[in-house]
Amino acid sequence: VVRPAVGARISPDHLASLVLGATGRTRHLAFLLDFDGTLVPIAKRPELARADAALRVMLDRLGSHPQVSVAVVSGRSREDLLAAMGGSVRASLFAEHGGVGVLPDGAVVFLTKPPNGDLLPVRHRVREVTWPEGVWVEEKDMALALHTRGAPRDGAARAGTMLRQIVGDVDRGQRLRVLEGKEILEVQPRGLHKGLVVEWLRRPQTGKSPLLVAIGDDRTDEDAFRSLAPGDFAIRVGHAGEPTAASFRLLDPPEVRWFLQGVLIRLPGPGFQGVCV
Ligand SMILES: [Mg+2]
Fold first, then answer.
1. What's the pLDDT at 88?
2. How close is the Cα of 130 to the center of ligand 1, in Å?
């Protein structure tokens, strides 16, 4: 396979052919899929972004193929991600950037310990602060998020400065980091990132290590891309512009679905036909 330049635009069908070519008939294929901005478009409020029936059916068929496993990995809290997926599919659902996952059989796995000791003073200070209009705080198990999509630009910028100030004041051991996503700022333990799920997916399934395909639309997904092995596929969603460790680029969630659909219909074996999305 000839590798194009970093973040190169590619058609979903072409990409699906490349992935299937690299997988062959025997190698296990593991997907790491971001949710917001990747599988579904970014919505005004997180609760408005929901997996529709066509997406659930497609992920279910993909994850039910004996050669394939699917992990949806989001920054959302566990309850939030389960609600957004709207029903069970044959996929592992990793919340909080991979901190905690719910497997297809319902089992819950923690990939890192909750950072309570480090995060507690930040939680206290954040509650005492009056945030700019339209900014709201979300408490998660592993992190604390500041949502700015309801705030004007200057309010969002001011909230970011305030949050960095708080973390700078209380995090003497520098065990936390402030991560900036799309209209969200998140305080996380440094060891918590989507690369944890890459390591988890890399567990050998059929003797050989699986081929990994990671897809995401923002900076938190770059942690997963950087954890991939040579030959794996990193796919950034969106327009060119931001630096990325991904080799390929798809434009938007409809193209991501088209790509996944393309993989599904090319997979070997009877009884695994694609669905229209
Ligand atoms: Mg995203």
1. 78
2. 28
pTM listed for this prediction = 0.84
Q: Which amino acid is at 210?
A: P
105 Cβ contact list (under 8 Å, min separation 6): none
> How many angstroms does the Cα of residue 36 sit away from the middle of ligand 1?
4
Ligand 1: distance of its center to the CA of 239 in Å? 14
Residue among 231, 223, 248 nearest 34 (CA): 223
* pLDDT tens by residue, 18-63: 999 999 888 999 999 999 999 999 987 778 899 999 999 999 999 9
75 CA distance to ligand 1 middle (Å): 8
Ligand 1 centroid vs 37 CA: distance in angstroms?
Answer: 5
Give, in order, the Cα–Cα distances in Å from 145 to each of 13, 105, 158, 167, 174: 36, 29, 15, 12, 18
Q: How far is the CA of 271 from the centre of ligand 1 (A)?
A: 32
Q: Does 204 have pLDDT greater than 70?
A: no
Distance CA 9, CA 130 (A): 43
